[in-house]
């Protein structure tokens, strides 16, 4: 009878994960700001025999996320799986102060707000799994997306460190780094998206990794190779390659 919490469940990858995980006996706590979207998803989960818990909350608000955790823990056992997936890419100048503040407050502090309030109960239960959704964009600063890339790079370091401190308590931690996925976030992308995949396919890959308790869940393979290579090349060379690619795209 698993209990699962998913932030950013009102669309895209979070919604696809919730639909894949819905089964009789499963309780799915869904967190996002758009209540009506959560209600519609809740109905679809109920039709699959799952029990939805709906939490209209903003991950940037630590008090609101404390209240979500309290409500989840009062309703049942600590989560078997907590997916901190809510995130934004931001609009406008992706390297400016405004983008940095907006994106870090959702993608980094929002993840902390979603995860930390559950840890004491999960630690006490000595079980459970946390999956944080980052991005392959965290491997290196990409043209025009400094704030987004910085937020996902921060998640790599934070989850690597937290994984070590959670392991002795029997809690597994995975970082999910997808490439391009067709969702509301990427619908209006003006540039080509190599190896793009559907949210459903991404959800399947994520769940396979979660089942294996993989520390990093990264896909698709060719994009993983590309970003890893870019991250180890000397910046003088990787800059030139990225400049070339971005000129080709425009
Ligand atoms: N799509 C891609 O190509 C791609 C690639 C790599 C990584 N990712 C990552 O995957 C995750 C999910 O993104 P997606 O592609 O599925 O995009 P999406 O369809 O736009 O979904 C984003 C989700 O996050 C929620 N959210 C955003 N800000 C929030 C806030 N302040 N409080 C609560 N919920 C908030 C949104 O719900 P509300 O608006 O209702 O609050 C929505 O449910 C993100 O972390 C993203 O960075 C996506």
From TrEMBL:
Pfam families listed in its UniProt record: adh_short (PF00106)
Highest taxon of source: Bacteria
SUPFAM superfamilies: NAD(P)-binding Rossmann-fold domains
One Gene Ontology term of the molecular function aspect: oxidoreductase activity
SMART domains the record matches: PKS_KR (SM00822)
Keyword annotations of the record: Oxidoreductase
Descriptive protein name: Putative short-chain dehydrogenase
């Amino acid at each position: 009878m698993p209990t699962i919490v998913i932030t950013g469940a009102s669309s895209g990858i979070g919604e696809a994960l919730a639909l894949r995980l819905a089964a009789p006996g499963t309780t799915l706590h869904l967190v996002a700001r758009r209540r009506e979207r959560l209600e519609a998803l809740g109905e679809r989960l109920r039709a699959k025999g799952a029990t939805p818990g709906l939490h209209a909350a903003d991950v940037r608000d630590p008090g609101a996320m404390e209240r979500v955790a309290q409500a989840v823990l009062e309703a049942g056992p600590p989560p078997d799986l907590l997916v901190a997936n809510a995130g934004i890419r931001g609009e406008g100048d992706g390297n400016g102060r405004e983008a940095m503040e907006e994106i870090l407050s959702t993608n980094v502090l929002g993840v902390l707000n979603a995860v930390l309030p559950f840890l004491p109960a999960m630690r006490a239960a000595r079980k459970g799994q946390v999956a944080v959704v980052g991005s392959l964009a965290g491997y290196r600063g990409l043209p025009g997306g400094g704030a987004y890339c910085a937020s996902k790079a921060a998640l790599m370091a934070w989850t690597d460190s937290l994984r070590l401190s959670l392991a002795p308590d029997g809690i597994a931690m995975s970082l999910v780094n997808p490439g391009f996925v067709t969702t509301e976030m990427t619908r209006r992308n003006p540039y080509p998206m190599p190896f793009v995949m559907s949210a459903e396919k991404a959800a399947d890959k994520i769940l396979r990794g979660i089942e294996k308790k993989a520390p990093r869940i990264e896909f698709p393979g060719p994009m993983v190779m590309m970003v890893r290579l870019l991250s180890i090349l000397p910046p003088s060379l990787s800059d030139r390659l990225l400049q070339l690619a971005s000129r080709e795209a425009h």
